[in-house]
Amino acid sequence: MKVTYYGHSCFAVNVGGKDVLFDPFITPNDLAKHINVADVKADYIFVSHAHFDHMNDGINIALRTGAKVVANWEIYNWFGKNGITNAQPMNPGGKWEFDFGKVKCVPAHHSSSFPDGSYGGVASGFVFHTAEGSFYYTGDAALSLEMQLIKRLGKLDFLVAPIGDLLTMGPDDAIELAKWLEVKEVLGVHYDTFGFIQINHEEVKKQFADAGLNLRLLPIGATENF
């Protein structure tokens, strides 16, 4: 399974011949200025919650590519009102079998509102099980005991978790979650974009290594096999 990182919490997974994009936030990100958003491929766009730094480029990418947008009911409706007809609602607790594999939508303890301040529905995470591998993207979640239930859905190959702290879980909690789920590979997201979530890369990588985990901090635009 190939994973491409576009900065902040935006990444894409190529699986089953499909390009699955998560939380598209590229053009306003100074760290991703070298990324041409017009080159970003997508057959599906999964949106974890309504904050601007997770869906800013969603409309233009969806219109250009025709990708199906998958998100909670409130975000699904918002995209519909903005001209996106190829969309599917998916609330926490729900699951669906797509042409690339199965996805379970799970709660993420985090706030969610649209840029105008209106209610953005419940923040979500997504658990993917495919023939090429399985992973859990937490969204902007805080650590919670109910995350231990994720293991009941099946074995995971890697975890995608925020590590910037302050607005989400930080390295300590991401390490704890990886241990709960018995996952050794972690893709770090939601860090460095803003001054208050900057991290010391070497220190955080050592923190994960000391816990027996491999933290991957991909350069923006880089693709790696997971």
Automatic annotation (TrEMBL):
Domain Metallo-beta-lactamase: 7-190
Superkingdom of source: Bacteria
Molecular function terms from GO: hydrolase activity
Assigned keywords, A-Z: Hydrolase
InterPro entries: Metallo-B-lactamas (IPR001279), RibonucZ/Hydroxyglut_hydro (IPR036866), UPF0173_UPF0282_UlaG_hydrolase (IPR050114)
PANTHER family: UPF0173 METAL-DEPENDENT HYDROLASE MJ1163 (PTHR43546:SF3), UPF0173 METAL-DEPENDENT HYDROLASE MJ1163-RELATED (PTHR43546)
Name this protein carries in UniProt: Metal-dependent hydrolase
Species this chain originates from: Chitinophaga horti
